[in-house]
């Protein structure tokens, strides 16, 4: 007793349904990536540094992979890629490459203080 559909028809129908599901999945992934990009870029700020600038570097703590601390200041040497930068720690001879997301501008304590009035 047959199912009323030949094996070849069943295979073609199944293949069509799989291709349709793949198209839907690709579309959904593209939309999700666009939403994530929009969400990320809302708070992202472009950062540029000039050779000689002082920067802080976000370095993971040795006690925990989840814990990181801003350390520095390091001296910015040069940009080595679209998002990679070379920095040097004072007193060290070798440079370290760091991703731009792990760098931020170093502000000296005097630059953080606003103008003082009445003194």
TrEMBL record:
Signal peptide start-end: none
Domain Integrase p58-like C-terminal, residue spans: 72-104
Domain of life: Eukaryota
Residue ranges, annotated region (Disordered): 29-48, 88-119
Bias-annotated ranges (Basic and acidic residues): 29-40, 88-107
Stated name of the protein: Integrase p58-like C-terminal domain-containing protein
Taxonomy of the source species: Eukaryota, Metazoa, Chordata, Craniata, Vertebrata
């Amino acid at each position: 007793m047959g199912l009323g559909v030949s094996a070849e028809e069943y295979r073609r129908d199944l293949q069509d349904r799989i291709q349709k599901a793949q198209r839907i999945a690709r579309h959904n992934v593209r939309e999700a990536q666009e939403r994530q990009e929009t969400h990320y870029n809302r708070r992202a700020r472009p950062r540029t540094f000039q050779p000689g600038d002082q920067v802080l570097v976000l370095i993971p703590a040795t006690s925990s992979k989840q814990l990181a601390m801003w350390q520095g200041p390091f001296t910015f040497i040069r940009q080595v890629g679209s998002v990679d930068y070379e920095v040097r720690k004072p007193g060290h001879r070798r440079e370290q490459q760091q991703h731009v997301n792990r760098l931020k501008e170093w502000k000296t304590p005097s630059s953080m203080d606003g103008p003082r009035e009445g003194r």
